[in-house]
Design brief:
binds NADP nicotinamide-adenine-dinucleotide phosphate; two-stranded parallel ribbon; binds ligand G4F
Length: 334
């Protein structure tokens, strides 16, 4: 019997980490995930994959750790010797990064170096995926692709630019298979509850149930290119299976405003969003990214990757899931 391929995922408890773990398990990988110790339960998105690792066929193993802890990253890479490392951990909220810029620089920026250094000293043949982002393009006008200059507009975007370049540098300096996925916004029923799409779809479900009557929001004019998260984690995996290490944009190429997403979500249940949405300046950012629209033609050509779920359908998937949740559907279903 051949040995299972082994992967390490940081950020396994997050939206993308949970889909990545699921997809790798389905492909027969032995999956190791990094989790932070927390006083409250933070494994809701992976509980259905892990609830008892002693059961036969359970191949997801969790390890305590924090990506800012260089010694622990070295120890884990050295003990596990994975074939692939997916670095998905980050303080990933743009608005929060203005409140916690220094923390974000460490958790979203420098921590990437901790993993790259661990790989460099343990085994340079380990393949490394870095969760880069369209936020790095920031104020550069669309459409944005792999050649678009970076112009980050937040401490989060600036930290991710560091991670992007240190990943490229290790690829070039040490001949490592270390790549950046420059991913545009991707959402799902597992999206964090304070990101705009999920905030909207939860509100729609609550309003239908009579549990909420107002939705307080910030800038509704921003344009985003929203895709469906499971398709994007598949794209990450494809990047690490390629013959040569390269960076790729993943996006749908569509452009909708927050207003448009509000309309898709509310109209799905027969409501008019304008009757519920109110403005609160606390949701504005000191500097905004006005327009992100990706060009993923390189990924289509070289990886055979293409987004198929577009924002109108995505909004329906997310509203339906939040309605089902309120109706008592188990978390593992989504
Ligand atoms: P997410 O849901 O916010 O998940 C972030 C994950 O990182 C969580 O598992 C979190 O653990 C973990 N984490 C945070 N700080 C950590 C630390 N110091 N040590 C260890 N783990 C830590 O994010 P996501 O949407 O899945 O995104 C995954 C990655 O892709 C992130 O790096 C994000 O910046 C990037 N990205 C996301 C998008 C998008 O649209 N979703 C687009 C481009 C790039 P807890 O559960 O304990 O908080
Ligand atoms: O959903 P958001 O918070 O996502 P944002 O800032 O685009 O960042 C997400 O996508 C990035 C990829 O481009 C990732 F790298 C990052 O980790 C994260 O996943 O906000 C989207 C837009 C912004 O323009 C924001 O100003 O929605 C606007 N918005 C308006 N009202 C709001 C709100 N955003 C939030 N979170 N909450 C609001 O009430």
């Amino acid at each position: 019997m051949t040995e299972a391929r082994r992967a390490l995922i940081t950020g396994v408890t997050g939206q993308d980490g949970s889909y990545m773990a699921q997809q790798l398990l389905d492909k027969g990988y032995e999956v190791h995930g990094l989790v932070r110790r927390s006083s409250t339960f933070n494994r809701g998105r992976i509980d259905h994959l892990h609830h008892d690792e002693h059961l036969p066929g359970k191949n997801l193993h969790l390890h305590y750790g924090d990506v800012t802890d260089a010694a622990r990253m070295h120890q884990l890479v050295s003990e596990l010797r994975p074939l692939e490392v997916y670095n998905l951990a980050a303080q990933s909220h743009v608005r929060v990064s203005f409140d916690e810029p220094l923390y974000t620089a460490g958790a979203t920026g420098i921590s990437t170096l901790n993993l790259l250094e661990a790989i460099r000293s343990v085994d340079t043949s380990i393949r490394f995926y870095q969760a880069s982002t369209s936020e790095m393009f920031g104020a550069s006008p669309p459409p944005q692709n792999e050649d678009t200059p970076f112009y980050p507009r937040s401490p989060y975007g600036a930290a991710k630019v560091y991670s992007y370049w240190i990943t490229r540098n290790y690829r070039e300096a040490y001949d490592m298979f270390a790549v950046n996925g420059q991913l545009f916004n991707h959402e799902s029923p597992r999206r964090g509850e304070t990101f705009v799409t999920r905030k909207i779809t939860i509100a729609v479900a609550n309003i239908v149930q009579g549990e909420q009557s107002e939705l307080w929001m910030g800038n509704l004019d921003a344009v985003r290119d929203w895709g469906y998260a499971p398709e994007y984690t598949d794209g990450m995996w494809r990047m690490l299976q390629a013959d040569v290490p390269e960076d790729f944009v993943l996006a749908t190429g569509t452009a909708y405003t927050i207003r448009d997403f509000l309309a898709f979500a509310f109209e799905h249940v027969g409501l008019d969003w304008q009757e519920y949405v109110k403005f609160d300046a606390k949701f504005l950012r000191p500097t905004e990214v006005d327009e992100l629209i990706g060009d993923a033609s390189k990924a289509k050509q070289r990886l055979g990757w293409e987004a198929t779920v577009l924002p109108p359908e995505l909004a329906k998937i997310m509203v339906d899931a939040d309605m089902a949740r309120l109706g008592g559907a188990p978390e593992g279903q989504f």
